[in-house]
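Changelog-adjacent note: as of this version, every example in the card shows the full chain rather than a window. The one below runs 140 residues end to end.
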Amino acid sequence: MEQRVAVITLPVEDLAASRSFYCSGLGWSPVFDNGEVIFFQFNGFVFALWSRAAFEADIRVPVARNGHTFAVAHNVGGRDEVDSIISLARSIGASILREPEAQPWGGYSGYFADPDGHVWEIAHNPAWEISPEGYTSFRS
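Full-length structure tokens:
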């Protein structure tokens, strides 16, 4: 198996509310939306919001009702961008889990949760490079 990710899917309780949060709130543009699943083209992979009922039917097991089992990270080029995105998330009703603050690893980050509790870290890591296309590269 190659070391890559093609799609990240978040199961959501209310697809319309999630559409509003991500599209109207965060300003994202879907590339596909059929009322059951919404796809967003990211830098090198696809991000999906899928109705929880359809997701559970597909995997044939119930899923946790709280998204706090992992975090999706969005890295940006500076501290001001972290503050701006956390502020935007707050303004559209996200739960702010941790206000942005300096980190012991030399960066700056904060966390919010979407309407289903999925955790997003907004981070600036000065040791990592972000290309003009949005690809983040690990540098030690």
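Structural remarks: The chain has two domains: 1-63, 66-140.
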